[in-house]
Amino acid sequence: MPASASARAVAPAGEGPRLGDIGDRAGRLGVEIADVAGLIGDLSGISQNQALQAEAARRSAQEMGAATSRLAQSMGTTREAAADARRVLDQSAAQISDVVTRAAETMTVLSESALGFRSRLDTVSDTVRGVEKASMAIAQIARETKLLALNASVEAARAGDAGRGFAIIANAVKGLADQIQEFSGQTVAHLGELTEALGGLRHQAEDNAEAAQQGMTDSRAAGEATATLEELVDSVGRLVTDIDTMAQPVEQSIVGFEAMQGELSALADGVADGRRHLEKAEARTQTILGISEDFMLFLVEAGAETADAPFIDLARAKADEISELFEAAVARGEIGVGELFDENYRDVPGSNPKQVTTRFTAFTDKVLPPVQEPVLAFDARIAFCAAVDRNGYLPTHNKIYSQPQGDDPVWNAANCRNRRIFNDRTGLSAGRSTKPFLLQTYRRDMGGGQFALMKDCSAPIMVNGRHWGGVRLAFKV
């Protein structure tokens, strides 16, 4: 008979009901404390996330403030550069405009002069052609006069002495006609040279006129380029104005970011203070929970009959059974002590959540199921019964929680709980407690933000006086 049952048997008759009532109330108190501890733990986790988020927000605000400051500096530098560019362009545009205007005026004068010179050459050419016609007429007259003088000479010769004076006149007319013809020939030659020279001048004048026309066209294009340059100056001026307009909200943003950084810093400090208080509250609740667990142990050992007594007795009996089983296996040489207490956990490749094995995993897979599986039929409230070593390693779970892992980590976490290390407070306490039993109350995460209040009753497993771990028997509240 377990020690707790013996204690209950020797308790005074009048004292039993009172202790039992205290035990039940202590059990309910433990449940409430565990629930509060879980809620505080949740709040602590939320507070931690809030602290991280507040700190991240503060850093983001600082980075945004710094970026805005850099933007303001860049905008100031850009504005100064644009203003300088505007001044330079304004001066350049004015100078270019003056030069282009004077060049256009000069080209206009040159063009008009070239066109006038070409017109005058046309007039001279007409005059030369008139002189050529006159020269040709004179030459014709000279020929006819020469012919007339020749005829007069013939007639004077026929007249003899009577025509001697007429012959002298005829010879003089002939000489004059020869001179006129000679001069006419020279005039025609000179007029030819003049006409050729005038042709060259005319061709050059036409080239000059075309160049002048092109110069006027280029001057107009330069004037248009000057107008474009002036538009560029106006655009740069508008850019300066726009930068000034944009700079105002940027400066306001800098002020706003500074204020926001202060507020976020205060918020982060407040969250950090709240987290510190929650950590203290969590530690205090864990202490109170431990006191509640010790109080329950005290009541049971004092003989109090509680609703949890059957589960406590069952856990202690299974721990004794496994202790004897391990000791017998060591005695038979079925497994060595070094293998049984192996803590060199080796990862199962590809497992998620991570599973591990040791040198005793195959042994426990063989010997523990016959001890653990029948416990599930003891009471419908029992969720599982499994042995863990001192580090919370659970090598062999109940069959319903020992499914082969698949591709879904969430499904694996719920259905493949064997060969995993549960080193939370409940798991480590169950594996390391050497008290006759340990009754813990905790919230079991069911997934999706849902929790179920559970009680975990554990008892130590001893192998030849050496603490191996403990049996965990969990049941619903």
TrEMBL record:
Recorded superkingdom: Bacteria
Domain spans labelled Methyl-accepting transducer: 25-268
Alphabetic keyword roster: Transducer
PROSITE patterns given in the database record: CHEMOTAXIS_TRANSDUC_2
Gene3D superfamilies named in the record: Methyl-accepting chemotaxis protein
Annotated segments matching region Disordered: 1-22
Extent of Low complexity compositional bias: 1-13
PANTHER family from the UniProt entry: LYSOZYME-LIKE PROTEIN-RELATED, METHYL-ACCEPTING CHEMOTAXIS PROTEIN MCPB
Protein name: Methyl-accepting chemotaxis protein
Native species: Devosia salina
